[in-house]
Design brief:
22% strand; eight-stranded mixed sheet; Urease, subunit C, domain 1; alpha/beta
């Protein structure tokens, strides 16, 4: 069987900072077949010499919203399906060309888009989606303005009102039905709104959301499907409460403190901070039409975000890599590397964007690694990103981008 043979490679395998030089990696079909420090025999393989460069797993962004076509979430529903889809295609292509060969949409992504990607109708990263996020009335996923008496878009699911990114469900029966519905639609996991948020107009950021029994019921439904629940949480106490109730992953964790970080680490849960969106909207939000009330909340989060990551690092929390960029800010996806470098070392950040995120996705050994039988989602970086993380942050130093064994870019030969 013909294949592609990378030779003379410095390999970052997704975990170890001791990158071996002079490695050979054989790709056949959509899989890595062999990784060796000695020559691999493959008479008909196409050979690519990557001497002086680093071969590593494709990057994973574990927190995106492909249909969030405007920073003002209230406007997203009124932008129309064709416009939102066009935004998604543009955003996904940008992510792939930045080296992100896998993404996880945690609010809005759906089966139809996933099918289009699988059938190669568009060039995009591997796509995991949580479907619509579950929110209580008046929660972070309820985007009505305080003066609105009903959902103007008229969207309905089998359990209650919905919008582009979320569904509103209250009480045990609605929560169970909403979770089951998203899982029926192919959701990789279930996302809930566990605290107040920034982009939502009517809920304070410090507010716990959903009752304990509602969260426990949703967790049960996900676990029965061998899936998991991830929860939007900014305050530390909201994150702790959700983890206590069985939530496996926390999104944002912006206001994390040392005690909560230690608790989360002990429980083996994950946290996916999202720095890029905080700083992008803090700087550009007013110009882009971000609501004034939400701008105040983003400033509150920005002042505490770096300290929250410091608490995670000290406690040894399993940290994932996500960006959460809305509307036109999607072009700042690579900035996440620069912002995290204020707290984490390059190898820690690379693990977050590869093997840690693969663990979140329940795809250890298949994604986020360079190993036999893993998917051939690979990038070749001009230089050594473990010594110079700006090689990824700048986005101009990728000689090869491979997704499922197919070249998205090959500037070597």
């Amino acid at each position: 069987m013909s294949g592609i043979l990378f030779k003379n490679a410095r390999v970052f395998d997704g975990t170890s900072e001791d990158c071996q030089e002079g490695m050979q990696v054989l790709v056949e079909g959509d899989r890595i077949r062999e990784v060796s420090a000695t020559p691999i025999k493959s008479a008909d393989a196409h050979v690519i010499d990557v001497a002086g460069k680093t071969l590593m797993p494709g990057l994973i962004d574990a927190h995106i919203h492909v249909y969030a076509s405007d920073v003002n979430i209230h406007k997203v529903d009124h932008s129309g399906t064709p416009y939102r889809t066009a935004h998604a295609i543009r955003m996904l292509r940008f992510a792939l060309e930045s080296g992100f060969t896998t993404v996880r949409d945690v609010g809005g992504g759906d089966w139809s888009l996933a099918r289009a990607i699988d059938e190669r109708l568009l060039v995009a990263p591997r796509f995991f989606y949580a479907g619509k996020a579950l929110s209580m009335t008046g929660g972070h996923g309820d985007f009505r303005e305080p003066g609105d008496s009903q959902h103007e878009d008229g969207g309905l699911c089998s359990c209650g009102h919905s919008n582009t990114l979320s569904v509103v469900a209250d009480g045990l029966d609605e929560c169970i039905k909403a979770a089951r519905e998203e899982l029926r639609r192919g959701a990789h996991c279930i996302k809930i709104m566990g605290s107040g948020g920034v982009a939502s107009p009517s809920d304070p950021i410090w507010m716990n959301q959903y009752r304990d029994d509602e969260i426990s019921a949703i967790v049960h439904e996900a676990q029965e499907r061998r899936s998991y629940v991830t929860a939007h949480c900014h305050p530390a106490y909201s994150a702790r409460r959700c983890v206590e109730l069985g939530v496996r992953c926390i999104e944002h964790g912006t206001l994390m403190d040392d005690d909560t970080a230690r608790f989360i680490a002990e429980k083996g849960a994950f946290v996916v901070p999202t720095m890029a969106v905080i700083f992008a909207i803090s700087e550009m939000g007013k110009k882009l039409g971000f609501p004034a009330a939400s701008q105040e909340k983003i400033e509150y989060a920005r002042q505490r975000a770096i300290a929250g990551m410091e608490s995670m690092r000290k406690a040894g929390v399993r940290v994932g890599f996500g960006t959460d960029l809305l509307g036109d800010t999607y072009v700042q996806e690579r900035r996440e590397f620069t912002l995290r470098s204020e707290v984490f070392s390059p190898v820690e950040i690379l693990r977050q964007a590869t093997s840690n995120n693969a663990a979140i996705l329940q795809h250890e050994g298949k994604l986020g690694c360079v190993a036999p039988d893993a998917y051939a989602d690979l990038i070749v970086v001009d230089g050594d990103p473990l010594k110079n993380l700006s090689l990824l942050a700048e986005g101009r130093h990728l000689s090869v981008i491979m997704r499922a064994g197919e070249f998205i870019r090959n500037d070597i030969n």
